[in-house]
UniProtKB/TrEMBL annotation:
UniProt-annotated binding residues for 3-phosphoshikimate: K354, S355, R359, S500, Q502, D648, K675
Listed name of the protein: 3-phosphoshikimate 1-carboxyvinyltransferase
Function: Catalyzes the transfer of the enolpyruvyl moiety of phosphoenolpyruvate (PEP) to the 5-hydroxyl of shikimate-3-phosphate (S3P) to produce enolpyruvyl shikimate-3-phosphate and inorganic phosphate.
Catalysed reaction, written as an equation: 3-phosphoshikimate + phosphoenolpyruvate = 5-O-(1-carboxyvinyl)-3-phosphoshikimate + phosphate; prephenate + NAD(+) = 3-(4-hydroxyphenyl)pyruvate + CO2 + NADH
Species of provenance: Oceanospirillum sediminis
Domain Prephenate/arogenate dehydrogenase: 37-325
Metabolic or biological pathway, per its Swiss-Prot or TrEMBL entry: Metabolic intermediate biosynthesis; chorismate biosynthesis; chorismate from D-erythrose 4-phosphate and phosphoenolpyruvate: step 6/7; Amino-acid biosynthesis; L-tyrosine biosynthesis; (4-hydroxyphenyl)pyruvate from prephenate (NAD(+) route): step 1/1
Short name of any one Pfam family annotated for the protein: EPSP_synthase
Chain positions recorded as phosphoenolpyruvate binding sites: K354, G427, R455, Q502, R679, R720
A Gene Ontology BP annotation from the UniProt entry: chorismate biosynthetic process
EC number of this enzyme: 2.5.1.19
UniProt-listed InterPro entries: 6-PGluconate_DH-like_C_sf, Enolpyruvate_Tfrase_dom, Enolpyruvate_Tfrase_sf, EPSP_synthase, EPSP_synthase_CS, NAD(P)-bd_dom_sf, PDH_C, PDH_N
Higher taxonomy: Bacteria, Pseudomonadati, Pseudomonadota, Gammaproteobacteria, Oceanospirillales
Family affiliation: Belongs to the prephenate/arogenate dehydrogenase family.
Length: 769
């Protein structure tokens, strides 16, 4: 199994976990576990013993009886209060048990089942703890002919290298996962009972089918154990006195801890899950052979590729476990509580520009040579782009404090990814990648989170099809997008129906792979980072008024990139510094590309006190420090030509409008309705909840400046909405509670710390699972 597959499995775990979590209330509305008066645990090892302890502690399972083939273990279990009664003869207790848990090694399951069978009441619920489910099912089928209705297979993933009653822990299952693998004939009530039993022990219960379970476990648990056993054994054989272990460093200890696990149990597991383990082992051997060749040939690129991919996968995996990665965004539940008031002061630097960060990875990957990037935005959106290129075989080092090194593979060097490219919350990633993927030789599927899945993709699919690409979308032109490889694209002259830099960039990037000239003409100027960066990478782009064009078939030459701070992130502090009384701040090194400065123009028209200092040009993009002082803002009619130049800044501009004297009118901004949320409606809902008078129209809004009250607002999956209401608190009468703010990490990691450092008063409430 490849790393990408593993990650997908873990992601699936989380999805399943979400489902099980969501079902939890329903599960607990029918408490089958409460009807259990007698529980029989057969096998008092670490797993069975810990279960008995946890059930006792939870006061569930009624009378707990424990059996073990070792009389001493039974006596010990009784003496420490782990069980109420017990013996070495399970058959003596079967008839009285309402719930039986078979927690013996998989190899012994069949004989225990044979013991149970003649005495089992039809209404008794049975479950097991075997770590390979196919073999347990096979044993049950051998004993009963088919799996009894009330036998629900399960597997707690909470092993340890220790075993026996003495090793049992009352909290072994706390925050551990248990997988149940229900069969079609299992009644809901039986599945619920087993689920409730594990949940009562503190476990998170997931559900999956048996073959899937066995493959996931073979790859994530059985294979690592096999390798640890083998490595230690190999080294031990090399040096009979075991002298070598004296010098063993932490790496050896970390890697081989699990080689101290119970040999008999593991022999049984490998016997029971033989097929899936061998499959995982074959894939591992293939991976190892590739690495071996890389080492033999001193192939530095190949080694770096493997190591950086593995490092990023491992970090990603850790973040999943810490519940902080973007992939399980839906699992993160963070709210902001914004206390009213505050004056801002000091100098601050917001993170790197998101649009430029995306493009630096894309062009760096497709260039010939190595691209060094500084100031890269380590936000989830640009990291999604980075991961997508790693998934297509590009070696990317970093990011380490904003530094990234991309080992370009050339325009035709990408490899087919092992699965769909997951782009999280990021519209830019999906639309720009769609253009690039249209020119590849392989098929690709582009997917994203719930918010991205609602966004329109037909706007890029249509011109791509005109170029000869084969693009499928889901209903209504939404993601996922399936892009078929191997098509010869031809250049088109595309007159864009909407002002969108993403559409323009998509078409131009597809144009790199097209025969002849590709031209875009936009109805209004939009950000031109693609055009600038292509030029910086040695690819000629002709620009003529609203049109940009390029010839297909050229090449990109690696170029170093210094990403300026993101004006879209700086905008929150521009508005904050303007509306908070007695404030003066400097936002350093902000990118001031003329196609992005609408927010400054609009705020100045409203009377903001904004001045630029230290103006310079870095890597083809103008930058400056922005000084902002408090000012009394006034309502204006926002000039329509500024709309595309400030497209991402409107949520926070609406907050400025709410603090201004008079009415601010916005028109020609229907594009706001198809961002991460419908930004017109969602902002209006929040402003109204805070007592601000506003009226929504199809393409804009009228906001009457006045008093911002207090209350609760919702981000609706949109980072910029969350941050905008945090800014509003600087002038609110009371506290603003902002629901669902984890998405802020897509564009502005560290927002809360930076804002509080400047004078905000935000606290974070974490309701993550
Ligand atoms: O090209 C880009 O990097 C972006 C273009 C804009 O989207 P549209 O092209 O949909 O307006 C903007 O909203 C987005 O945050 C980034
Ligand atoms: C619209 C935005 O981003 P994207 O389209 O990339 O999701 C944004 O960051 O405001």
């Amino acid at each position: 199994m490849r790393i990408a597959d593993l990650l997908r499995h873990w992601k699936r775990y989380w999805e399943l976990y979400q489902v099980s979590k969501a079902n939890q209330d329903t599960v607990f509305s029918n408490r089958e576990i409460d009807t259990v008066k007698t529980t029989l645990v057969i096998g008092l090892g670490l797993i069975g013993g810990s279960l008995a302890l946890a059930l006792k502690k939870a006061g569930l399972g009624g009378h707990i009886i424990g059996c073990d083939r070792d009389q001493d273990e039974v006596e010990l279990a009784i003496s420490i209060g782990m069980i109420d009664q017990g013996s070495v003869r399970a058959e003596d207790w079967i008839e009285q048990a309402d719930l039986i848990v078979i927690s013996v090694p998989v190899i012994a399951m069949e004989s225990v089942m044979a013991q149970i069978r003649p005495l089992l009441r039809p209404d008794t619920i049975v479950t097991d703890v075997g770590s390979s489910k196919g073999s347990v099912l096979a044993s049950a089928e051998k004993v009963w002919g088919s799996l009894p209705d009330n036998f629900v297979l399960g597997h707690p993933i909470a092993g340890s290298e220790k075993s026996g009653v003495a090793a049992a822990l009352v909290d072994l299952y706390q925050r551990h996962k248990v997988i149940v693998t229900p069969a079609e004939n299992n009644p809901q009530a039986a599945v619920r009972c087993v689920t409730q039993m594990w949940q009562a022990c503190g476990a998170e219960v997931l559900s999956m089918d048996i073959p899937h379970h066995d493959e996931v476990l073979a790859a994530t648990s059985h294979l690592p154990h096999l390798l640890a056993f083998s490595l230690v054994d190999t080294l031990a054989r090399q040096d009979e006195s075991l002298e070598i272990f004296r010098y063993a460093a932490g790496g050896f200890r970390d890697f081989t801890r699990i080689a101290a696990s119970d040999p008999v149990m593991w022999r049984d597991i490998f016997t029971a899950n033989q097929r899936a383990v061998l499959k995982a082992l074959t894939e591992f051997e293939q991976g190892l052979a590739i690495l071996r060749t890389a080492v033999e040939q001193s192939d530095s690129d190949a080694m770096l590729g493997i190591f950086t991919r593995a490092k990023s996968a491992r970090e990603h995996f850790s973040r999943i476990l810490e519940n902080s990665a973007y992939i399980p965004m839906q699992n993160k539940l963070i709210h902001y509580r914004a206390a009213p008031g505050g004056a801002l002061s000091g100098r601050l630097r917001v993170p790197g520009d998101k649009s430029i960060s995306h493009r630096s990875i894309m062009l760096g990957s497709l260039a010939e040579g190595t691209t060094h990037i500084k100031g890269f935005l380590e936000g989830e959106d640009s990291l999604a782009t980075l991961q997508a290129f790693r998934d297509m075989g590009v070696v990317i080092e970093g990011p380490h404090q904003g530094e990234v090194t991309v080992h370009g593979v050339g325009l035709h060097g990408l490899k087919k990814p092992a699965g769909p490219l997951y782009l999280g919350n990021s519209g830019t990633s999906m639309r720009l990648l769609a253009g690039l993927m249209a020119g590849q030789s392989f098929d690709v599927e582009l997917t994203g989170d719930a918010s991205l899945t609602k966004r329109p993709m037909e706007r890029v699919a249509k011109p791509l099809r005109e170029m000869g690409a084969v693009v499928e979308t889901a209903e209504g032109g939404r993601p996922p997008m399936l892009i078929r490889g191997g098509q010869q694209l031809k250049g088109i002259d595309y007159v864009m129906p909407m002002a969108s830099a993403q559409v323009k960039s998509c078409v131009l990037l597809a144009g790199l792979y097209a025969q002849g000239e590709t031209q875009t003409t936009e109805p209004a100027p939009t950000r031109d980072h693609t055009e600038r960066m292509l030029t910086g990478f040695g690819y000629s782009v002709a620009r003529n008024g609203a049109s940009a064009s390029l010839q297909g078939g050229g090449k990109l030459v690696a170029s170093d990139i210094d990403v300026p701070s993101d004006i879209s992130s700086a905008a929150f502090f521009m508005v904050a510094g303007s509306i908070a009384p007695d404030s003066e701040i400097v936002i350093e090194h902000v990118g001031l590309n003329p196609t992005r400065v609408g927010v400054i123009n609009i705020l100045k028209l409203m009377g903001a006190d904004i001045t630029l200092e230290n103006e310079a040009e870095v890597g083809g993009e103008p930058v400056a420090d922005i000084r902002v002082r408090s000012a009394q803002l006034k309502g204006i009619d926002i000039p329509e030509d500024q709309v595309p130049l400030a497209i991402d800044e409107f949520p926070v501009l609406f907050v400025a409008a709410a603090c201004a004297e008079g009415v601010t009118r916005l028109r020609g901004a229907e594009e706001l309705r198809v961002k991460e949320s419908d930004r017109i409606q969602v902002m209006a809902d929040g402003l109204l909840a805070l007592g601000v008078d506003c009226t929504v129209v199809e393409d804009g809004i009228d906001i009457v400046g006045g008093v911002i009250g207090s209350g609760s607002v919702h981000s609706r999956d949109d980072h910029r909405i969350a941050m905008s209401f945090a800014v509003a608190s600087l002038r609110s009468e009371g506290e603003i509670f902002i629901e669902d703010c984890a998405n802020v990490a897509t564009s502005f990691p560290g927002f809360v710390e930076l804002a509080n450092g400047a004078g905000f008063n935000l606290s974070v409430e974490d309701e993550s699972l």
